[in-house]
Specification:
Largest sheet: 5 strands, mixed
Shape: rod-shaped
Bound molecules: adenosine-5'-diphosphate, magnesium ion
Radius of gyration: 54 Å
Strand order of the largest sheet: 2-4-5-7-6
CATH topology of the largest domain: Four Helix Bundle (Hemerythrin (Met), subunit A)
Number of domains: 2
Structural class: alpha+beta
Number of strands: 7
């Protein structure tokens, strides 16, 4: 919070306080001067010492000069003095009944002036000016001074109260302004973060779609030659079997071939060839099958079509993801194979953006592999398993659970894992985007849910639920 002095004009407040203190002070002094001059007047009349009388006359002239000046200062509204003009009430006290203080003061001063002029010999207690002065100082003038001083005091208190009130108001305003500014700053902060997030997501989906496009073109290129091989292998298989059959018949009917043929039979180790050739053929067949599967998976994985929802077989999607990640599951120098244990229930087709759902499985299974990799490094005998279970859930939904036996998550990681850019992995390994994208795809784009159960040392399970139909 900024300093209060930024909001209040402290100088103004201090000046106002000084002015009202000065007014109270001056009018108090008026009262005191009136009393003192009455006392001097009595002493003047009572004194028998000429020198003392002369001194008292001087004192009196001084006192009334002061009184006159103060009086002018107090009532002169357009004066050049620093005092503020008197209020209407004060003015009325000076110029209207019942007090007529202005008149009283001037009369009082005039009477003192007159008394001072009276020669020593004529001074007596019966002097009418003295009578007037004593009466006024003890009664009417004193009462009027008291009234005006207390009025000044009251006004000053009201003014003080107003200043205080204004201060409180200003303070409240400043608090409101501050919290508004804070809210605006938070809003700007939020907007900035959103822009940053959107940008990151865009970059990521851009990357994913260019990977997708690249995959699609590779799939396209490989598809034809693989089809040749795969398509012709079955013919080649039949042909070799036929040829081997023919060979056997020849050997049967011609058990003693000529020397040249005998040499070649020995050279090529015909017996071994005959037993090995079918094996070669079948392993070629298996290899071709495998290539076809991979190509098919890549084909389905490279679907980047986000404009249209399609009926999707989640098992296909999971299987092709696993196939693409196969290399990462295989044994490494520092750890054995990662086992995948699948437990699929029969699922209906799920209406979804297939490319996005592939991405979900890709991110979750990659995270599980990362966790298992790390676990293996810290605990050499750890089990390295990923369980993938699917089931039909209540409310026309399907549920997929992906669990790993990795080292799990701490409470802090669990709390922050969906945050964009949050990663516990080394620079270059983790982007911190995976789970935030998974969340967005499932929850925002597919009305699905995503839950995570994880315990340090025990492993992690992500539980996905998706509605079968989107509408
Ligand atoms: P990244 O994988 O790039 O770090 P993610 O958003 O995919 O970003 O994951 C965020 C963080 O969540 C990871 O850095 C990791 O700490 C934690 N995490 C995600 N999945 C798992 C898991 N299966 N086991 C343990 N920790 C996980
Ligand atoms: Mg990740």
């Amino acid at each position: 919070m900024a300093a209060l002095s930024n909001y209040f004009n402290l100088e103004e407040i201090t000046t106002a306080r000084k002015v009202s203190a000065a007014v109270i002070n001056i009018s108090g002094r008026q009262r005191m001067l009136s009393q003192r001059s009455a006392f001097f007047c009595m002493r003047l009349v009572g004194s028998v010492n000429a020198a003392e009388r002369a001194k008292l006359r001087g004192n009196l002239l001084e006192a009334i000069a002061l009184m006159a000046k103060s009086h002018r200062d107090l009532i002169n509204t357009d004066s050049s003095n620093l005092l503020s003009p008197p209020s209407l009430t004060v003015k009325a006290m000076y110029f209207e009944g019942p007090l007529y203080l202005d008149k009283q003061v001037r009369e009082y001063i005039d009477r003192i002036k007159a008394l001072v002029q009276v020669p020593d010999a004529e001074l007596s207690l019966e002097n009418p000016d003295l009578q007037y002065i004593i009466a006024a100082a003890g009664d009417k003038l004193l009462a009027a001074f008291d009234a005006v001083v207390s009025q000044y005091q009251q006004e000053s208190e009201i003014e003080q109260f107003e200043i205080d009130f204004k201060q409180v108001e200003l303070y409240q305003e400043s608090c409101a302004a501050t919290s508004k500014a804070e809210a605006q700053a938070a809003e700007i902060d939020r907007a900035l973060r959103e822009i940053k997030e959107t940008q990151a997501q865009l970059m990521h989906s851009e990357k994913m779609s260019s990977i997708g496009a690249l995959m699609a073109s590779i799939v396209h290129e490989i598809n034809n030659p693989v089809s040749f091989i795969h398509g012709n292998l079955s013919h080649a298989n039949i042909y070799t079997q036929d040829l081997l059959h023919l060979l056997r018949l020849y050997q049967e009917y011609n058990p003693n071939p000529c020397a040249e043929i005998k040499d070649i039979i020995e050279e090529i180790d015909l017996d071994f060839l005959v037993t090995d050739l079918p094996k070669v053929m079948s392993s070629m067949q298996m290899g071709a099958e495998r290539i076809r599967e991979i190509v098919k998976s890549m084909g389905s994985f490279s679907r980047t079509d986000n404009s249209k929802m399609t009926q999707c077989d989640l098992h296909d999607s999971i299987d092709s993801t696993i196939l693409i990640l196969q290399n990462r599951l295989n044994a490494k120098t520092d750890r054995p194979d990662i086992q995948i244990i699948k437990n699929y229930e029969k699922l209906p087709g799920v209406e979804c953006y297939a490319g996005q759902i592939n991405q979900v499985f890709m991110n979750l299974i990659s995270n599980a592999i990362d966790a298992l990799d790390e676990t293996a490094q810290n605990r050499p005998n750890a089990q390295l398993k990923i369980y993938i279970r699917t089931e039909v859930a209540e409310g026309d939904r399907v549920r997929v659970r992906i669990a790993d036996t990795g080292w799990g998550m701490t409470a802090e990681v669990k709390e922050r894992m969906f945050e964009q850019f949050f990663t516990t992995k080394a620079i270059g390994k983790g982007t911190g985007l995976g789970l935030s994208i998974v969340y967005k795809i499932l929850v925002e784009n597919h009305r699905g849910t995503l839950r995570c159960e994880s315990e340090p040392g025990k492993g992690t399970e992500f539980i996905i639920e998706l509605p079968v139909q989107q509408t």
